[in-house]
Amino acid sequence: MLALLWRRPAVFVLVLAADAIAELLQTLLKAAIPRARPHVSHLIPVPSSHSFPSGHAATSFACATVLCALAPRFRAWFIALAAAIAYSRLYNGVHYPLDVVGGAVLGVLAGVTALRLPAGRHRRSRRGLRAG
């Protein structure tokens, strides 16, 4: 929405890059760390992939990190939304708390990485916005 409102495709590209980086990293980590999912009553169908790290937490925090840097005024809303998405993984019984924390940390790292891409450096310096 911000990309459309600001008429800045770079915002969309950076969020997409952060999401893709987080998705790639969490997929690689899930393949390397074969942690089983919790054995609780699930509210949703149990995903077939491993548990660590949470992909939802990773991608939501990656996107929130980029958006926080580009629109710091809405930082609290972006972080709250990412935290709610991450918490939903615990609530639905498909992740352990450490999976969600690991996914969130991975997501922040992916977001920071995306902001270091040429489009991110140019966008922030042009508008005078800072990362973090």
Describe the structure.
The chain has 132 residues and is an all-alpha fold. It has six helices and no strands. The protein has helices at residues 2-6, 9-32, 55-70, 75-91, 97-115, 118-127.
Overview features:
69% helix; mainly alpha; 132 residues; 6 helices
Count the E strands: 0
**Given the helix and strand composition, which structural class is it?**
mainly alpha
Task: Indicate the radius of gyration in whole angstroms.
Answer: 15 Å
Taken in chain order, the helices and strands follow as: HHHHHH
Estimate the helix proportion, in percent.
Answer: 55-70%
Number of helices: 6
Q: Report how far the terminal alpha carbons are from each other.
A: 20 Å
Proportion of strand residues: under 5%
Poorly predicted runs: 128-132
Shape: elongated
Please summarize the sheet with the most strands.
none
